[in-house]
């Protein structure tokens, strides 16, 4: 298959059409993502479990669906996804303790189901509890192992670029009938 030969044979109008088609696919995906953010109230409505710390509830590669409605109180036993200052990747763990102050502020402690100790060692130095502002979302559903594609693409960047190149070439070279 001669990719560049096919591109040279394609007239300019066809090429513009294919590029616009590709741009529409990308913009549609972004619009769907932004729509999910609005509907779920979560800055990241879908996340992939990256470690085995939540086994047996969730395994590495499970795809989680999140919501983050601010009126809904956090309860012990819930699985939350949270960000900690100084860490780029959100963490998926279970709320094990709730600490409610007299003024109504709620703080909570998390732990991975498969971990021996709570998460205080993961929080920023001097932080013993999480607050609502740290929560990215709460797990509402999952698809087992669907996120393994994401993990493979992160572990093997060349695979990711090859897959993107093949998908881009397919969209650009696909002929409409």
UniProtKB/TrEMBL annotation:
* Signal peptide positions on this chain: none
Q: How does it sit in the membrane?
A: Single-pass type II membrane protein
What's the superkingdom here? Eukaryota
Keyword set for this entry? Endoplasmic reticulum, Hydrolase, Membrane, Protease, Signal-anchor, Transmembrane, Transmembrane helix
Location of the Peptidase S24/S26A/S26B/S26C domain:
38-124
Q: A Gene Ontology MF term for this entry?
A: signal peptidase activity
Catalytic activity field? Cleavage of hydrophobic, N-terminal signal or leader sequences from secreted and periplasmic proteins
Q: What is its main location?
A: endoplasmic reticulum
Q: Where are the transmembrane segments?
A: 15-33
Q: What class of enzyme is it?
A: hydrolase
Gene Ontology terms: biological process: signal peptide processing
User: Briefly, what is this protein's role?
Assistant: Catalytic component of the signal peptidase complex (SPC) which catalyzes the cleavage of N-terminal signal sequences from nascent proteins as they are translocated into the lumen of the endoplasmic reticulum. Specifically cleaves N-terminal signal peptides that contain a hydrophobic alpha-helix (h-region) shorter than 18-20 amino acids.
Query: What NCBIfam families has UniProt attached to this entry?
Result: sigpep_I_arch
| The protein's name in its UniProt record | Signal peptidase complex catalytic subunit SEC11
């Amino acid at each position: 298959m001669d990719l560049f030969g096919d591109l040279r044979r394609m007239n300019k109008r066809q090429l513009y059409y294919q590029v616009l088609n590709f741009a529409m696919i990308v913009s549609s995906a972004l619009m769907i993502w932004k729509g999910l953010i609005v509907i779920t109230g979560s800055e990241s409505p879908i996340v992939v479990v990256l470690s085995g710390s939540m086994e047996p509830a969730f395994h590495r590669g499970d795809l989680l669906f999140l919501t983050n409605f601010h009126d809904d109180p956090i309860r012990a036993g819930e699985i939350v996804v949270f960000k900690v200052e100084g860490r780029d990747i959100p963490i998926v763990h279970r709320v094990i303790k709730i600490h409610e102050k007299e003024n109504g502020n709620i703080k909570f402690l998390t732990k991975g189901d498969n971990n021996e100790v709570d998460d205080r060692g993961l929080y920023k130095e001097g932080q013993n509890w999480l607050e609502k502002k740290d929560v990215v979302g709460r797990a509402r559903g999952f698809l087992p192992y669907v996120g393994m594609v994401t993990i493979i693409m992160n572990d093997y960047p060349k695979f990711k670029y090859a897959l993107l190149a093949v998908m881009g070439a397919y969209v650009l070279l696909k002929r409409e009938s």
